[in-house]
Amino acid sequence: MSDNNRSNILNQQQTINNTIQKFMKNYQVDPIKNLLTTASTAQVIIPTTNIDSVAAGLSLALGLKKAGKTVTVFTPQATDNNYSKLSGLDLLTNQISANDLTITVDHPLDQIEKVSYNDDGGKLNLVVQTKPGSTQIQNEKINIQNGGSNADISFILGDEATLGQNADIVNRGNWVIISNTQVNKSWAKATIIDPSAPFCEIFTFLLPLLGIKLDMDSGKNLLIGLRVATQSFSVNVSPESFEAGAICLKATQPVPGQPDPLASTPIAGVENKSGTPGMNKANPVGTV
User: Fold this and answer.
1) Which residue range(s) make up the domain with 160?
2) Considering just the CA atoms, what is the radius of gyration of the chain in Å?
């Protein structure tokens, strides 16, 4: 290939990339990336259970898990068979441990011999035994916290008000709110708001910005959520919706000889337009 031909191809590719970039959303993610840098545990809270929000939350959780973080995903209602094609369902729980007591000891783990407890006349004693030669644990190195999040970073998809008695969980910990409606939360360390898109569209662009690669599992989840939220790209769509769909479809391309993960997905079955809690319908985003 001549240098001129190679240059022309590179220029054409750059033109294509620039065209695509015009449609891709560019959220401000530096505060989130800073929190993720030092986090080893994470939780994703999904106040409203539907295909769009659960698919997006699970995609985030799968990416964080593959990055080596311990992750849980909370949604208040149990998922049914409509969600069975989503990956990462084993991460879901419908229990929030808002009443836990967390005791944090700022002491090197390699200097801890063992941790035990005993019953002292009906009182609970926690015993932290250090290794011989280790420095003594100082009182100021012990932190006691009642309730709230045990995770280093917590994501919530939407408004905490729908969590009911668990809504005060956001008062403790490092929280990131991601919403497709306008909200202003003083407790949030970082905020992503995009009223023009369902959650799965937001997360298609957000995850790569956070350094989380879309793979077959996360891409499949997001594509299913997009198809449900837009009723197979027929309502509530924008140019970015189709761009997000193309990105997810590319991520789900099967390895030669492997089954297509989307071939047996019963989209018609999950595009449920009922208002029954826990069932699925398109997110109420603005029409285009």
Assistant:
1) 26-99+149-270
2) 23
